[in-house]
Design goal:
With 363 residues, this protein is α/β, with parallel strands linked by helices. The protein contains 14 helices and twelve strands.
Length: 363
């Protein structure tokens, strides 16, 4: 990955925020409705992680309509099935989409389909996960930073126990390059400071698979030897917590997460999950929509990009890599509530009222 100079990177937030106020004049400039009447295909990987359906899809659709009122969107979800996603891509290309936004269910398996899209003259924008093949642009968050935030939080939460007890690594799905990116970032913080007792890959980022893996770790290590769990995202954290409870663990070790799912935020308030990583999905969706509209108009993705990224197959991909933020019980209000992700009422359901008062979310 080639990163622009520090001075330039500092304006990424300003540039991306600027996407939210781009003039809409150009979208109606073609009197015959030509260049601004194309269809954008959106392909998301699963329903396992709540953010895809609840945040990304509606936010991308909303921003596309703002940037290009004449454009339409086709949507498909792969349900964690790369073969299904290939079929969905072919269908969209056959229907004449002008550009594809792809969050690949399997970044390697979709390479040939991306090549077919290129041959058909349909640019492909990789969303959230860096797909292999001739993609035209890439929008995501800095995955190394995500892992480092998780590792740093875990060390802080473990405190003096960091040397005495083991950490269980509950990594993401190996078919996603983000999983390795998160893991590498976390290990850059944890290596030499804690003992990694067990490390697992979680197929499909599934809560059920995370539960099975964590149950195996508990059986192998014993709950008393587990000082913390590096869970790659909130769905995995949910499985970890369920497994610990099933094993009769009453005092849960610190557990990380990612995506700021509403249920995870509630678990943080209850004290079951230590932290999550907040990735402002609205900015990611805005950047993806702006890049997709540029590509659909035949423009260069560099008009939106702020840096570039190399994949195993393609060099210097125009990219936007956004900055994630760690969220603990002490920072929910000034991050998620302040940004309008959730209201206090959404977080503080009746059974959490006492915990919310303790956390300072309610008077």
């Amino acid at each position: 990955m080639r990163i622009l100079p520090t001075r330039v990177r500092r304006v990424i937030g300003v540039l991306v925020a600027g996407l939210l106020t781009v003039s809409l004049t150009a979208c109606g400039s073609d009197g015959e409705g030509g260049a601004d009447s194309f269809t954008v295909g959106l392909l998301l990987p699963s329903r396992t992680v709540p953010r895809w359906e609840h945040s990304d899809k509606p936010l991308i659709e909303e921003r596309l309509k703002e940037l290009c009122p004449g454009c339409t969107m086709l949507y498909a979800n792969a349900e964690n099935d790369a073969t299904r996603q290939r079929q969905q891509m072919i269908s969209m290309i056959t229907k004449g989409v002008g550009v594809l936004i792809l969050d690949a269910a399997d970044t390697r398996a979709l390479r040939s389909s991306i090549q077919e899209a290129r041959k058909a003259g349909v640019p492909v924008l990789a969303y959230d996960r860096l797909a292999e093949g001739p993609i035209s642009g890439y929008v995501s968050f800095d995955g190394g930073r995500v892992g480092r935030l998780q590792g740093e939080a875990l060390l802080q939460a473990m405190g003096d126990q960091a040397q005495a007890r083991s950490v269980v690594m509950m990594n993401g799905d190996p078919t996603s390059p983000n999983a390795a990116w998160y893991r590498s970032g976390a290990l850059s913080v944890l290596t030499g400071k804690v003992k990694i007792g067990r490390s697992y890959e979680t197929l499909g980022w599934s809560t059920e698979n995370a539960h099975a893996n964590m149950s195996a770790a508990i059986a192998a290590l014993g709950p008393e030897r587990i000082g913390g769990v590096l869970a790659a995202n909130d769905a995995i954290a949910a499985g970890v917590i369920a497994a610990l409870k099933s094993a009769g663990v009453r005092r849960l070790p610190p557990i990380t997460g990612q995506d700021a799912d509403l249920e995870a935020v509630r678990r943080i308030v209850k004290g079951e999950q230590y932290m999550t990583v907040y990735k402002p999905f609205r900015l990611e969706a805005a950047a993806a929509a702006a890049m997709a509209v540029a590509l659909g108009r035949g423009e260069d993705a560099r008009s939106v990009a702020t840096t570039s990224t190399d994949s195993p197959t393609t060099k210097h991909i125009p990219s936007v890599l956004l900055t994630p933020t760690a969220v603990t019980v002490d920072t929910i209000e000034r991050t998620l509530v302040k940004d309008g992700v959730y209201t206090v009422d959404q977080i503080c359901v009746p059974k959490l009222r006492a915990a919310c008062q303790k956390a300072g979310l309610l008077p």
